[in-house]
Amino acid sequence: MREVVDNSLRHLGVEIIDLLYQHRVDPNVPIEDVAGTVRDLIAAGKVKHFGLSEAGPNTLRRAHAVQPVTALQTEFSLFEREAEALFPTLDELDVGFVAYSPLGRGFLTGAAKPAREYGPGDIRSSDPRWQPGNFEKNLAATGQLRALAAEKGVTAAQLALAWLLAQGPRIVPIPGSRSPVRVEENVGAADLSLTAEDLARIKDILPTGGFGARYASGVPTWD
């Protein structure tokens, strides 16, 4: 970790890293050791804040006891709701939440194709939500979201991001954007206010998330 931080500071040409994430919890290294190392890097003036990704409540508490955690990053979107179970702990510890893949890995933009049309190196080729059966159900739900978005004069992506922002003040979505046009579209979601009726209609469309799990296999349970 110390070597990575020194390399990052040199490569980025900066004096301090604002937020240093451990992007996956290492089961072979006690989280207290990770947090302690970040605490030392903060004391040395190389890092400002400590972040974790895909960590559960127990791990978060253990890390936070050594060095306060500023942000937890985990997948969260209209399609993926498991992270809601973390919110009470985040509220208790005053930890921010960074939602990655907030557009359902692109499905919620309305541009999704069946799994067979993606290359073998594309995660969507094996994502259960893109597989036959689930794909058609998710496509139908996305169509309903697009219709609601059209009523409000926005895109389905903007509606999905606005829904995330409506879930609480500590949530910050980080959509991947490949063009300036998409950046402008995503930023526009911040100006969209959803009414209670809007939120109720969205809940009717996707009560508990999309159809299909996040990954086909191999994802450990949060601790």
UniProtKB/TrEMBL annotation:
One of its GO terms (cellular component) is cytoplasm. InterPro entries: Aldo-Keto_reductase (IPR050791), NAD(P)_OxRdtase_dom_sf (IPR036812), NADP_OxRdtase_dom (IPR023210). Residues 2-205 form the NADP-dependent oxidoreductase domain. Pfam families: Aldo_ket_red (PF00248). Keywords: Oxidoreductase. One of its GO terms (molecular function) is oxidoreductase activity. PANTHER family: AFLATOXIN B1 ALDEHYDE REDUCTASE, ALDO-KETO REDUCTASE 1-RELATED. This is NADP-dependent oxidoreductase domain-containing protein.
